Amino acid sequence: MRFRAIADSLGIILMFFSITFVVPFAAILYYWDLSYDPATQLRSCEEGWRTIISFLIPAVLCLVVGGALRIFGRGYSEDIRDREAFFVVGVGWLVIAFLGCLPFLISGTLTNFFDAYFESMSGFTTTGATVLEIPGGAPEGADYLDAYPHSVMLWRSFICWLGGMGIIVLSIVILSKFLGGGSSLMDAEVSGPTSTRLKPRIAQTARSLFIVYMTLTIITIALFRIVGMDGFDAVNHTFTTLATAGFSTHYSSIAYYDNALIELAITLFMFIAGINFAIHYKLIAGIGDKRKLLRDPEMTFYTLIITFAVFLITIILIGARDIGTWDSFRMSLFQTVSIITTTGYSTTDFSLWPESTQFIILLLMLTGGCAGSTGGAIKVIRLLILTKLIRREVRRAVRSRAVMSINIGENSLPENVVQAVAMFFIIYIMMFIFGSFLFMMMGYDMITSISTAATSLGNVGPALGKFGPAFTYQSMPFYGKLLMALLMWLGRLEIMAGFILMFPSSYKE
Questions:
Q1: Residue of 173, 160, 166 whose CA lies nearest to 84
Q2: In the chain, what is the straight-line distance between the N-terminal and C-terminal CA atoms, in Å?
Q3: What is the pLDDT of residues 311-322, one digit of tens each?
Q4: Which of 171, 338, 421, 438 is the most buried (most CB within 10 A)?
Q5: How far apart are the C-alpha atoms of 296 and 39, rounded to whole Å?
């Protein structure tokens, strides 16, 4: 492994990352108020010199370190190899999470490094799990802006948006690699075994998907404003909705609004964000048959899972709680889409729902969105392939000599793709079980441990039990937060890519 090539690539990433600090600086200028006195005023949303420093230091650090790495490895990134690229992705995520946590620390928003790193990793991996609490308690309708600066809250949402775009681009190379696509890391194949080439080069594909991401961002902000959000909330919730992250500017998440129109708008764009962005691109660009695109096997399966889960949860809530049909359906629809897309918004404390509905929610945490989306977890395409694999093996038990292929749409999958999917599923479940056991070793009950492992590995956010949507992870010990951060990182890197960094053979020529 050539460390100069790695240094060059990391240097490019860090120098680009330094530009992103312009966004919170814009918020500082907009909300600047020289009359703000922290000794006499309750609200601290007005900006001051400390917030400027909290973003200036990491921005300069990115430029200096990134520039030094580029000088050390100049020119090597042009022919970076697969193992080196995976190393850059894995280590780069860890480094950026560290730099992204500095504004939380320096501004005083979070005073503990482990808390700040947890919050940053949660944002960049679009998990949306938070340790942020309101000093002195959180009364009903509490707003984080009552205690923290606008720029810091915007940064918290913006890193989710950045992570979401990074996930889409990474999924092009990581998922296609580990689903047996056989493409080079620098090829431009869209994620998943049934994907098709969008553009001949990775940079062109990334540019096309970024245009889709930006277009949806603008549309979402406009719609959120129309349905009743103020401008700042619309921007923040757009960032965390399209990234399927779930951070909110309100302590009670979307329950703060108690507005059916806002919930419907968020549900729509969570659903859209959970679909393969290659499909969005083709629909917008007018590539291919639109009817055929809308009948994509993975998207169809994704929609069927949501429909079935909403139906079941609605029926259970109507029968088990004193709630009307409309309210049961409204809560069921929102929470189902929120959990399966791994967004993690909440309109109610679903950890208080009947155990049967909590079991469905746990399964949704493990399911996740479509390949090539900003969603996490196992991904619908893998589950679709696994169901077809089970069906084939059952049929083979009767007709042992028959040659049976597994088809997704019109595509017949190579056997190595099927094997890779099965292997990923086994490793994912093993990591889920191991993570659950470690949380139990920390003294947590079974439902809390299992759901915390599932929500971390799947990049969902809220868990069940002690860490349900009504609570944060502030009370978790630092080693528990580090374990969650590690599981978030592994889950976002599709596990296999993270494992590459753990084997000594990866570093040999």
A1: 173
A2: 5
A3: 999 999 998 867
A4: 338
A5: 58
